[in-house]
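Pipeline run #58 for the internal structure catalog. This entry was flagged by the ingest filter as a single-chain record with no existing model, so it goes straight to prediction. Upstream metadata was stripped on purpose; only the residue string is passed forward. Reviewer on rotation: M.T. Logging verbosity set to normal.
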Amino acid sequence: MSSATPAILWFRHDLRLDDQPALAAVLQSGRPVVPVYILDPEPADGRPPGSASRWWLHHSLESLAAKIEGLGGQLILRRGPAVNALRQLAEEIGAAAVYFTRAAEPDAAAVEKHLNATLGNTVELHRFGGQLLFAPEQVLKDDDTPYRVFTPFWRACCRLPAPSVAIAAPTRWPAPDPSPASEQLADWQLLPTRPDWAVGLREAWQPGEAGAEAALDLFLDARVRDYKGDRDRPDRPGTSRLSPHLRFGEISPRRVWHAAEAHAVRAGGGNGVEAFLRELGWREFSYHLLHHFPQLPDTPLRPEFSDFPWRDDDAALQRWQQGLTGYPIVDAGMRELWATGWMHNRVRMVVGSFLVKDLLLPWQQGERWFWDTLVDADPANNAASWQWVAGCGADAAPFFRVFNPTLQGQKFDPQGAYVRRWIPELEHVPDRLVHKPWEAGGDDRPAPGYPQPIVDHALARQRALAAFRAIKKPAA
């Protein structure tokens, strides 16, 4: 153990030891390291984590604490406004410096500025990248304005030097003696009590750095080869399922990037890697949008949509949330979400379109439901994707492009395997009718309890287009 003045390593959405630039730098300083996670009632992303994210956070912190303890350190847990908690901890241990990863959430810059004003005269502050592949200031148009269309954004990213090589995790932890006091994770009550709705989450996920590494290895070894086609098939295990691990920073996007590139080299070709890296690019695009447009989670980027004539229908919203719309692909997605805290990306687009265009309910209601129920809910991807579906965001799908839930199901779940997995009421409905069970008769009918469609899609589409025409401004 070093006798030097200790330094604080402040964990945020970077709950890992691998490829952790802030950690590498503080270890290089030679100081004893006090790692801390702060549960902030007013976090930088503007709102506390939802229920599913709280479940994930508990297990991710548990995993991180065990890894640090295995190296000889102790993860310190504190609650309260982040700047106040860091100031108090720095005073307790006489810290010489605070090391942390830059965050891209809406209020992160203000928090970091406040931290500098509070501690900067007495404590060194060291900020590092790690949440993103490229800093938002790196990827701008020629006129220094942000990109609002994905393809030119991603081309600009790919013209930049590739992300630097990832940094290996440390093999030891120089801890102070004694360590400062820590709160107990159980006292934060992040887990559900009664009812215990997290059974499906426990079966589906392994939060923590080891789970992230296993998910990446499985994807590259068994799935990336067919990713370009399978990523749209919810009936196949074709996606990486890395999104919650990236959300909590249990694996860095840089590590994912280089692992995918190395796999492509070994495989002798792109082999699905290029399509996968574009999806990583969409995450990057969403965070850059959030950085430049902090109103993204609740305000349409296209201002004319502020006057959109949304409906107010709590009963329809609840039917959508519960997976009881009568449209199988929609209901299967919503039930998968409730059971596992996750939903296939193709199905997210379908259920989003259904809420916004078939039911004519505000996209913000869907964004809030996903915020509470997704284990990968983050303020960037969640909001940008909902605005995309609603036609009101950056590079958005045109509002007049209305997904037909029946055709989407038939195309991407042709035998109904995904639908039957989540809707047992349709177990005996034949393949040709599984996505339109209202046409089934006799023994082919759904089991009692599965509803008729909540709306007629053709009529709902016409209603949505009429609402869209009402907000369109005449040409100047």
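catalog note: The first strand starts at residue 7 and ends at 11.
catalog note: The mean pLDDT is 94.
status: ready for reviewer M.T.
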